[in-house]
């Protein structure tokens, strides 16, 4: 499975006008389908939603800047490990991310866009898990 960065960009552009709704949908979906991860998050998610949206924007902006992207993902992975995130949590997050993007992308969401996001999320989660596993406890 390979990622088409132009599809990542166009589908993200389609969801951008819905930013706060996208992240709200994401957390609602995540907690509805995986309530076991809810304790890893603060009671109030406003700041977390903003951080998620900023991270997604930075990811899309740096798709081809491997050095910047790797550094971002390593930092995120270490931080998330500090919050208690483990490798088993990442598939749930990925499923909720894809569901959220699909929900808001409209006609820009195609099977190829989903395949591209799935491939990119695989790289993201692998990098974050690896960094989290090397983070000091």
Automatic annotation (TrEMBL):
InterPro entries referenced in this protein's UniProt entry, alphabetically: Globin, Globin-like_sf, Globin/Proto
Residue intervals of the Globin domain: 1-133
GO BP annotations, alphabetical order: cellular response to nitrosative stress; nitric oxide catabolic process
Gene Ontology molecular functions: FAD binding; heme binding; metal ion binding; nitric oxide dioxygenase NAD(P)H activity; oxygen binding; oxygen carrier activity
Keywords: Heme, Iron, Metal-binding, Oxygen transport, Transport
Keyword Kinase: no
Gene3D superfamilies to which the protein is assigned, alphabetical: Globins
Sequence similarity: Belongs to the globin family.
PANTHER family for the chain: FLAVOHEMOPROTEIN (PTHR43396)
Name of the molecule in the record: Hemoglobin-like flavoprotein
């Amino acid at each position: 499975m390979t990622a088409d960065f132009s599809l990542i960009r166009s589908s993200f552009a389609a969801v951008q006008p819905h930013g706060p709704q996208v992240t709200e949908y994401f957390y609602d979906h995540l907690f509805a389908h995986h309530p076991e991860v809810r304790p890893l998050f603060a009671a109030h998610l406003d700041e977390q939603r903003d951080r998620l949206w900023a991270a997604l924007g930075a990811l899309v902006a740096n798709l081809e800047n491997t050095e910047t992207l790797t550094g971002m993902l390593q930092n995120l992975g270490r931080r998330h490990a500090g919050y208690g995130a483990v490798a088993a949590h990442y598939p749930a997050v990925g499923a909720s991310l894809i569901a959220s993007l699909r929900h808001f992308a409209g006609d820009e969401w195609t099977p190829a866009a989903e395949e591209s996001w799935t491939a990119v999320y695989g790289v993201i989660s692998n990098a974050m898990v690896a960094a989290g596993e090397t983070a000091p406890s």
